[in-house]
Amino acid sequence: MWQMSNGDPALRLMVHDTAPHVDQSPASAEARPWLAQYPDGIPTEIELDEYASLKELLSITCGRFPELPAFESMGHAMTFRQLDVASRSFAAWLLKTAKLKRGDRVALAMPNLLQYPVALFGVLRAGLVVVNTNPQYTPREFEHQLNDSGAKVIVVLENFAASLSAVVASTAVQTVVTTQVGDMLPPLRRWLTNAVVKHIKRMVPTWQMDNTVAFNDVLSIGSGLALDDVSLGHDDLAFLQYTGGTTGTPKAAMLSHGNMVANVLQVAAWVGRDLKDGIETLVIPLPLYHVFALTGALAFFSKGTRAVLIANPRDMPDVLKTLVRSSPTALIGVNTLFRALLDAPGFAALDWRRLKLAVAGGMAVQKVVAQRWKDATGIPLVEGYGMTESAPVAIANPIDIVQWSGQIGLPLPSTEAAILDEDGGPVAVGATGEIALRGPQVMQGYWLRAEETAAAFTTDGWLLTGDMGMMDAQGRFRITDRKKDMIVVSGFKVFPNEIEDVLALHPGVLEAAAIGVADERTGEAVKVLVVRRDAQLDEAALLAHCRVHLTGYKIPRFVEFREEALPKSAIGKVLRRALRDKDRAAVDRQAPGITAASGLRK
Amino acid sequence: MTPEASPARLVTLRDGRQVSVRAVRGSDEAGIVRAFERLSADSRYTRFMVHKKQLNPAALEAGLNPVPGRAFVFVATVPSSEGYEIVGAAQYVPADGSVTDQKDLDDKGRVCEFAITVADDWRSSGLAVHLLASLVRRSRRDGYARMEGHVIANNRPMLALARKLRFEVEPDPDDVTMVRVERRLAPLRKTLADGRS
To answer: ipTM exceeding 0.85?
Structure first.
């Protein structure tokens, strides 16, 4: 539509008369110049009716590939049939024993273990809503997310139960399902793994909670219960996927079954051309509670792929061992992870001959990482872009790219992207404006936040991304800057206000501001500028305070104490640009992606 | 140029609720502090652009006693068990770099900076429009030539409001997360000649 600013009035009318959330008839090639750039064999539209819901995706896929491995963790595989059976038991327990009603929320707080897909599909096929939760949350973070979502059941890995136990009484949670690392392993290994984790590695802090039930007990109880069929359609809510708000208070994007089915089909169409049903192996080092990993995994799942889960991507020797053992044909990660892999001792010895596809999201891919990856494996790093609010992928580089382009790519099938000016109107080709998205993967709105939902969309139904960018005549998009004040650390969003909020809780802090600074390894890192009330306050004490209230990736990397007050305008507004200027000067101009952090955000 | 003792005006808002709008008084201190304490973290952030635990005493003092002819503060109040509660406040002060000496009062280059805060449960009521329009009229009388404001780029309700009152919205060249809004304040003489403000 940006090409129509002085063009065809009829088309212009069509665009502006369209109400938000109304299905668009396929626009002409002129309106979507990117379609001409699609690689051969990539459809321009997806068939949304292929699956009525994620429940149907599960039943159809399990029916097609019953005996193939669906997920694998710590060397143990679970077939599609086993996943179907276990998730059915979990669903029956949720409805019959936990007595949840359609639409109730269930929080999942686990790293990548076999329990995750079992619980995930159990919740979805029961007609309930998944609240993906970072298990490493501090009590404060758990409390906010559980209260905001109103989750009645939470599934938590025991290793993280201590944080949850501190606040669970002040939430709506009625039942806590606890699981141990080895719960889905065969009996002997299960016992051994759980004993080692608990008693030898001492990775399970002591916890005490009422109304808990063990994951394996849930499955055995559920296996004896009938599961009434729940009818689900595209409009039914599937996920409350949390993301930072404008000013840092996390809020949930409501993603329906239709949103998720759409993005699964879109991603599968985009990357699936060279993938064959039932023979691929995907390695997933990114946590599945991150929507990029989740949707990516489901897209591969729909093709009968064996998905090898990595629970702790920081354990690089274990990651390498898993890569050797599983010999992947596809890999999903973020720039930080690909970089860590390339730098890892032992990486050079890996055999990548089977690899067909490497997909990166969550943050901008650095040129140097893309080049090194291509040189080492012969396969390009394909970068995708989107946001939690778009389930998440909306724009991506074509899989046949030869080298790093610095662009985020082309809108996916059945997706429209546009560059809008401050008033929500289209800008000319090549001009800078805000990237806006429209398509079946775009969320239903923010959970219980009508005002913020209204502000997120234009009257024409475009979802405003907060990213500034431009489109060229071929329909290729590029990010130039970011409107939202946020810091992307290894693909995870950090909102300055949340950090400042926590810093302000410390009695020794008078004023504090958090800013993002460029970082080789994580893309951006959190830096805080603090004006002290208590002159004795030091960095160690401040960071110890942060660790109590903030999960790892949000902890400031740099602390700078300032003697004078933060710079303010005449009327008392803190001028953040004056804080950033000094640090931004040091940014490597060779890699614009570092400052103009793009990518799929949590 | 002392502000005339401005009586409170009763204003009926879009949603039917009524507020009383008047100039701030020194005795409003407790009301301002209570109103600040009730503000959500997000509202405080959009006002101060940093997390603020409490009002700075010096800023509070200045806000309660604006210098006549240079600064002004409106408050919107509703009756309550405490006598009244402040549900909105709007102010302008001389902008940084603006000429503020008495002898330059007539200088056409004078610029003021505004800020508006509305209680969370009074959002979308039309109160902010009313307050900003009042500021525009009042600042014109104080001889200001332009009014500016700094707005978080994502604060779409505030930007919509500024556009409605004919502010120009332009990205802050130094900070993409911020937007600068500015409008010219028509000279008072012309306004009077037009017979309306």
So the answer is: no
